[in-house]
Amino acid sequence: MRITLFCAVLLALLLAVSLFYFQSLVAWLLLVNSLTWLVYGADKHAARKSWQRVPEKTLLLLGVVGGWVGALVAQEVFRHKTQKQPFRTWFMLSVILNVAVLVGVGYWRVSG
User: Fold this and answer.
1) Residue 50, SS3?
2) Cα separation of 7 and 17, whole Å?
3) pTM to 2 decimal places
4) Within the chain, what is the greatest distance between any pair of CA atoms?
5) What stretches of the chain show up as alpha helix (H) in DSSP?
6) What are the tens digits of pLDDT across the range 61-75?
7) DSSP of 61-83, one letter per residue?
8) In the chain, domain spans
């Protein structure tokens, strides 16, 4: 549970930091994807060492809030969470949701 709390605190800090930039959405995406990549790497390391793992809900949350690109890269680099079901299904649904939101926001900005 400490890991989940730690990740939640880091997400809150990243949100606060990203709000200070002119392009806060871009800053948020860069920061959350970097954090997601690091958390996946830490979870893979913990799995190899039989240490406490990052809960799958936390990994999915990181993807849902915009870290899915970092998660995809980390999955390939670390060969982590690439086969596990139902995690993969939920993760891909979060990717689809994120892409749909980005397309919707882009369409709204262009047409509005």
Assistant:
1) coil
2) 15
3) 0.84
4) 52
5) 2-18, 24-49, 56-62, 68-78, 87-111
6) 999 999 999 999 999
7) HHIIIIIHHHHHHHHHHHT-SSS
8) 2-111
